[in-house]
Amino acid sequence: MKAAVLTEFGVPTYADHGNPAPAQGLEVIDVAAATLNAVDIAIASGRHYLSPMSLPTVSGIEGAGTTSDGRRVYFSLPVSPYGSMAQQALVSTSSLIELPDGLDFSTAATLGNAGLAALMPLTHGGRMEAGENVVILGGTGVVGRLAVQAAKLLGAGSITVVGRDEAALEATRELGATATVAVGDKSVDEVSAAIRDASSGADLILDYTWGTVALAALRAGNRLVRLVQIGDRAGADITLPAQLMRSLGASVHGFMPIHYGPDAVQHSYRALTDWAAAGQITVAFENVPLAEVASAWKRAPHTRHKLVLLP
Q1: Distance between CA atoms of 270 and 210, rounded to whole angstroms?
Q2: Those residues with Cβ within 8 angstroms of residue 188's Cβ, 6 or more apart along the chain or in another chain
Q3: Is the previous residue joined to 121 through a cis bond, with omega within 30 degrees of 0?
Q4: Is 17 in a helix, a strand, or coil?
Q5: Is the pLDDT assigned to residue 233 strictly greater than 90?
Q6: pTM value > 0.85
Q7: Neighbours of 12 (CB within 10 A)
Q8: Domain spans of the chain?
Q9: CATH superfamily, region 117-256
Q10: How does pLDDT run across 26-45, given as a tens digit for each residue?
Q11: DSSP state of 163
């Protein structure tokens, strides 16, 4: 079969690879769409904890396709060396999630890793309640824009998006953002004041950036503010003053979907796909032939939409 084959750490190449065979508890999926995620690039670099111990292997952690009996499914974490960026993948039967009628494979694939990182920090990591003020740090990318839409559907009182690109920030208003804050060259105090003014004080912070912006957002928090830590694009380390944490009763929660178990993941994914099938949320993606995986690999870090590889 044709696949994105990693023969050395770096960028996979479009090449031939052996086909997977079904086994006890494992199914072969005919792949229709596979997303290219930041974690795929990190894994292929050889510096990620999920990086393969041996090569060659096929890249890709998630996708959508059909089973041998014709079921339309989303799948994740295929069995090595059969990644999702191929004509076929080998997947644990228990991890398959069936898709609603009318949902295309590319949307289904994109709502996996990205969608779960948008919805579950609200529902599980942050336990958002209707009417709360939500602040989304780094909310102009694929995940952040999904988080805006999810927060709106869950009944947020206000949704404030914080970022650097003013045009991209403004575009989030069409999705449900009630206010935006451009970081620019503002100081921590200035960013904090802007967030508090825009949000009327943060109750729940979705943090895709970390760094000093996270500190600014916490300073703009209401009593018992919760920050859900999801990404660290703005820096891996910050200093949180003890008095700030105590005075607000603030809490910081590290987030990964696996912390909440497979049932929570499947329930959350089904909520996302049901919303998408009903036209209540949208996600930006670009379909790219699998044969162009090398060029897609180089473009992916510089796009604000998801690249979806089609075998």
Answers
A1: 29
A2: 212, 215, 216, 219
A3: no
A4: coil
A5: no
A6: yes
A7: 24
A8: 2-111+283-310, 117-256
A9: NAD(P)-binding Rossmann-like Domain (3.40.50.720)
A10: 999 999 999 999 999 999 99
A11: E
Question: Which DSSP letter does residue 86 get?
Answer: B
Q: Which two tokens stand for residue 99?
A: 């898709």
For residue 262, is the peptide bond before it cis, meaning its omega torsion is within 30 degrees of 0? no
The maximal CA–CA distance of the chain, rounded, in angstroms, is: 60
Cβ-proximal residues to 257 (8 Å cutoff; 6+ apart), any chain: 116, 117, 120, 264, 265, 268
Q: State the fold for domain 2-111+283-310.
A: Quinone Oxidoreductase; Chain A, domain 1 (3.90.180)
The predicted pLDDT at position 148 comes to 98
CA–CA distance, 275 with 281 (Å, rounded to integer)? 6
CB 34 within 8 A of CB 309: yes
Q: Which two tokens stand for residue 248?
A: 């607000």
Quote the CA–CA distance of 190 and 112 in Å, as a whole number.
36
Alpha carbons 61 and 80: distance in angstroms, whole number: 10
Distance, in Å, from the CA atom of 98 to the CA atom of 298, rounded to the nearest integer, reads: 32
Taking CA atoms, 13 is separated from 17, 202, 221, in Å, by 11, 45, 47
The two three-digit tokens of residue 184, written as one number:
């620019």
Coil, strand, or helix at residue 258?
A: helix
